[in-house]
Amino acid sequence: MGHRTLLTALLICLLLTGNLFTAPDQAAARGNERLVPDPGVVSYTFRHQFDEDFEGTLDMIKEMGFTKIEFSNLFGNTAQEVRDMLDERGLSCPSFGVGYGNIVNDIERVIGEAKILGAHHVRVAWIPHDAPFDIQDARRAVDDFNRAGRTLKQAGIQFSYHNHGYEFRPYGDGTLFDYMMENTDPEYVGYQMDTFWMTHPGADAVELMKKYPDRFTMIHMKDLREGVEGDFSGGAPSEYDVPLGTGQVDFPALLRAARDAGVEYYWIEDETENVVERVPQSREYIRSIRN
Fold first, then answer.
1. Alpha-carbon span 127 to 138, nearest angstrom
2. Fewer beta carbons within 10 angstroms: which end of the chain, N or C?
3. What interhelical angle do 251-261 and 275-288 show, nearest 10?
4. Beta strands 189-194; 158-162: pairing state
C-alpha cells in the first residue's frame, strides 16, 4: 500500500471512530461552558408584582427562564399554598429567607415552613441593632447564629447569614465581619454573600471569597453603580443598584472564585422599580460569562 493510500485509510478510520481532534474539541467545549449554573431569582425583586398577582408573577418568572426562587415573603399565602403553586409550574424554592426574630423565637415554625417549601437552606439578612453596629451586636449574633444553625442542621437544613454592609466596620486587625466569620461554627453557620452590600462598604468580594472559600453557600448578585462611595449604614438609594455587569463588581473574577469555592446557589436580586426589563438583562449577562 502506498504512503498516500495508507494516510487516507488512517484518516478515514479516525473520522469514523470519532478520535480525530477529540482533545482540542473537548478543550474548546470546556472553554465555552457557562461559568456557573443558571441563576435563580430572589422574591423581593418582584415584590410589587407578587403583591398584585402572585400566580401571574410566578408565570412571568418562569417565562424569563428561571426555575428557582428564594422566597423571604410568602405574600399572604401559606407555605403549602406556595409549594403547590411552585410544583404546578415546575419551580422550586431551595432557599428560604426569614427574620432574625424567627430563628431566635420561633425556629420550629421556620423548620416546618422550610420543609414544606422544599428549602434546604434558611438565611437571615439583617441583624437588629442601634447604629452603629458594634462588637456587642456581633457577639450576640454569633451566639444566636451558632445556636440556630445547630438546630437547623439537626433538621437537615443549612443556615446562612446574608451580609448587609454594616458588618465591615474595622475591628481588631480586620472587621466585624471577620470576627463573625472566625467565631461562628463552620459546621452550623454559612454565609450568603451579597455583592452589593460588600462593595458598598468598600470590601472586595473576590478577595473575601478566596479568604473564606469554605464558608459561602450562596451569592446574591447585585451591582453597585460606578463612582458611588458607600458607607457602613447598610442602606442606599435604589438608583445605586444597576444591572449586573454595568457597575463596580467584577463578576467574572468573583464567579470563578465562587465556582472554585463550591458555592451552591447564585441568586439575582434587583431592588429597583423596572425589574421586568432589567432582570432578563442581568440573567443573560451572568449566563454569558464563560470558562
1. 9
2. N
3. 60
4. parallel
Helix or strand or coil: residue 285?
helix
What is residue 31's predicted lDDT score, i.e. its pLDDT?
Answer: 59
pLDDT (tens digit per residue) in 207-235: 999 999 999 999 999 999 999 999 999 99
Q: Which residue has the cell 468598600?
A: 202
DSSP state of 35: S
3-class state of residue 186 by DSSP: coil
Average pLDDT in the 155-171 region? 98
The set of cell numbers assigned to 33 is 461552558
Cβ burial, residue 151 (10 Å; 0-12/13-18/19+): middle
Q: Which of 47, 72, 61 is nearest to 192 (CA)?
A: 72
pTM for this predicted structure = 0.89
Distance separating alpha carbons of residues 59 and 224, to the nearest angstrom: 29
Q: How far apart are CA 53 and CA 85, in angstroms?
A: 13
192 with 217: CB under 8 angstroms?
Answer: yes
The average pLDDT across 34-53 equals 96
Rg (CA), the chain: 23
Question: Could you tell me the domains of the chain?
Answer: 36-288 (3.20.20.150)
